[in-house]
Amino acid sequence: MRSSIRTVRRRGSSVLVIRGGPGIGKTSLIEHALEFAEGVRLVRARGTAAEQEIPFGLLNRLFMPLANHLDGLPDPAAEALASIFGRRPGPAPGPLLLCMSVLQLLSAAGRGAPTLVVVDDLDRSDGESRAVLACVARRLTVPSIGIWVTTSVPVGEDQDLQDLPELPLAGIPGRAAAELLRRSANAPIPPWVARRLISDTGGHPLALAWLASVLPRDQITGRRYLPEPLPVPARVALWYRERARRLPASARTSLALLAAEPRLDPVALDRAIARLEGDPDRTSHRVPAGQPPGQGSVLARAAIYWALAPRQRRRLHRAIAEVVDPVASPDLQAWHRALGSEAPAGSIAAELESTAAIAAHRDSWARGAEFLERAAELSPAPADRIRRWVASAEAHLAAGHGSRAEAIAGRIAESGVRGPWLDRLRGRIAFDDGYYGEAAAALARSAAGFRDPAIARELRLWQLLSATRGGANRGHDLDPRRGGADRDARDPGARVAAFLDLLGDATDRTHLGALPRGTVAGGMIWLIWFRLAFEASLARWDLWALHVASEVWVGTARSIGARSELATALAHRCIVLTLAGELGEAAARLREARRLLTVHGGGEARRSIDAAALVLRAWRGARSGVEGRAGKIREGAAMRRDGAATAWSWYAEAVLASGLESYGAAARAAARASEGPPVPAALALPELVEAASRLGDRRTARWAVRQLEEAMGATEAPWGRGILARSRAVATNGTRAERSYREALGHLEQAGAVPDLARTHLLFGEWLRRERRQREARTHLREAQGLLRELGAEGYARRAWHELRATGAHSRRSRVEQGAALTPQELRIVELAAQGASNPEIAATLFISRRTVEYHLSKVFSKLGITTRTQLVRSVGRPGPWGNGALSQSASVG
């Protein structure tokens, strides 16, 4: 459009047809473009339905401002236009004469100043004006004249404006649509609600802005499900209904049926029309699914659907339920029977409940939750209604729709129901939000109220996990069934051992991945087994069991389509992969979890991702990515009394500080982490042993070893035995220390725990150096440095390099270590250059000048001791902040 304006200014001619449905933004786009039309005369008019029966009514209003140019026109043209302007009596001139007269009028106007003629809504004007303007547009060669015309008529139906230069408008893209929703809504819109609104409207701007402002607050915030199909703005609906009136009645019925169920196949659609209208000759009148009147969007169908009375809509759904294949699509049949029901119906509610799992598998876990919610609304018996509401809310939690679950809890409370079902739901919501103290109390009340021993047991396990994550175990026995204090809960070893004792056969069931399954209709408390498998395996230092538990957790969450649960599982899998030394794969799982979190993320998923990211950054030695974020996480955790999040942040800081040789900070962080829930406490104890030993605090180191011994008990897991042997070695001296180091290396190599194996080589090498056994020390330190470089654990790799230098070895510093001095701006430039970006492209991406890029690259080449970009790529390795390359650890993860 700006190009068209430039052409007119340069004494050229330009024609542009701007085509799009009502409310798509044609007028707004013109208003914006006209801001660039300074110095151009504007001649503008809008077609109106009120003047459609007045011949040449639009031409009269459009060109009247140019009537002062009539005197300079030839007599035939002046007389033809004068009759249109009402200045002389007589019959109207022919269309061709009037077309040529308008061209001469525009030529005269263009000699005075560049002129832009804008006609809005040409399709709503009189037919005579449309024909003349189309003729003028096709013959326009007049200098300094431009014509812009907007129309809502689809291109295939528009005979007047065919073959003219065209600008088709469709819905706005995703990010812009989401921003429009955000600005138009009176409340925050969850990502899944925004996705549904954008998808169902095709990004139609008027529909989006209207829906954001008129939908009830509980629907726009995700607390209640959105109507199907979505309502349509009156202006858009009127346009589609006017066009639909030209169709046969069967075609309109077809559109309404497709609005109610877009997945109807042609055979089922014809059968539904037959049931509604009793017309056996339907096929010729049916509108195919992809070709409704207008632009083919769901808006056309929705406009026709909502024009029907409620009684007619229910009849529509009953017809769909009768023709849907009950074998292939029992969920669709049940759903439309429910929508066609006028009152609560126990049989329909039971059918919805039984097909909820099919809907969850076919569409999404949230869809299955909607089936259960609808089933609850149709349940005449209060007990069935509450049970189905709770199952729906728990499914919403697994899908990441926490606000919907909270709304259901509110509806249950409003109904006057109190008891174990409501406590169960409130406990699960509090757990997902990270308020573990509240969760433990509610779950304890719920477990006491259920007669079913299996449900009560799983609820007690949720209570146990809530209590440990909240840190309530510091002053109480962990057993949720007893109130005594049999152990000294101040000792982390005692807490870990008590936690494992209480799990008992629960962890035996999960140890080999023999995890139970559940259905969406059965509620989601069975998901506790995955969390117990992870925490018990980690508390036992059993890396193989951790791999099994986390892989099965991810696979199950992926297969059932519970996306928030999948994000949580992926975050825990990231921790396992990090501890196993697969940092690149861990980063990939973390990226996937973050992508899920942007659309389907609950509170637990978000906290799990934060913890996993901290642990990964800590092992990579990314100080800037740990210290600041850990403090922010602890601030939020303190408000919720979330001991787990606090302990994980302290553990990450301990790992980071140890790699950076800041042993005082490592000891403080490890001590704080050991005060937390059992799992972070178990991981923190070896860190405390190492840091305290390096500070010369043998008493604290030996205390931590005793705690570790009590926590592990008689573990047979090679990882745990290796960690225990290493901790004993670090806390002792002499031949006993050497024997323990060698024992630890054997166990850790068997376990495949590469990071701890590398750290054990490092610690053993440091011990050998202090024992003045330089040659043996260099062997272990070189092994440690090589493993740690390969892992991308650059903090520990630098520590190994420093120790090697202390032995007198002439180990050339890697470019990784040289690159540690790069500034953040230099690191960003290096990443882009390694990905193949040219200097101008880097400058454009970072909003800096090309000379600044060249300056930074020259400094980078000097620091790394290289001269070409090829050498730079080799130094960086696989490009991108998630790579295993030499500089990748310096980039921020996430």
**Helical stretch count?**
45
Annotation, overall tally of beta strands? 5
Oligomer: single chain
User: Percent range for helical residues?
Assistant: 55-70%
Largest sheet: 5 strands, parallel
Percentage of residues in DSSP E strands = under 5%
Arithmetic mean pLDDT: 82
Amino- and carboxy-terminal Cα gap = 40 Å
Mass-distribution shape: flat
> What structural category do the secondary elements indicate?
mainly alpha
Strand order of the largest sheet: 2-3-4-1-5
Rg calculated over all Cα atoms: 36 Å
Contiguous low-pLDDT stretches (5 residues minimum) are 287-296, 473-488, 509-516, 812-817, 878-894
Layout of helices and strands, plus pairs?
Layout: H1 2-9, E1 13-19, H2 26-34, E2 41-46, H3 57-63, H4 75-84, H5 95-112, E3 115-120, H6 127-138, E4 145-151, E5 166-168, H7 174-184, H8 191-201, H9 205-214, H10 217-220, H11 234-244, H12 249-260, H13 266-277, H14 298-306, H15 310-323, H16 330-339, H17 346-362, H18 365-378, H19 382-399, H20 402-414, H21 420-433, H22 436-449, H23 453-470, H24 492-503, H25 505-511, H26 528-539, H27 543-560, H28 563-580, H29 583-597, H30 603-620, H31 623-640, H32 643-659, H33 663-674, H34 678-694, H35 698-712, H36 718-730, H37 734-751, H38 754-770, H39 774-791, H40 794-806, H41 815-819, H42 824-834, H43 839-846, H44 850-864, H45 869-876
Parallel strand pairs: 1-4, 1-5, 2-3, 3-4
Helix pairs in contact: 4-5, 5-6, 7-9, 11-14, 12-13, 12-14, 13-15, 15-16, 16-17, 17-18, 18-19, 19-20, 19-21, 20-21, 21-22, 21-23, 22-23, 24-34, 24-35, 25-26, 26-27, 26-34, 27-28, 28-29, 28-30, 29-30, 30-31, 30-32, 31-32, 32-33, 32-34, 33-34, 34-35, 34-36, 35-36, 36-37, 37-38, 38-39, 38-40, 39-40, ...
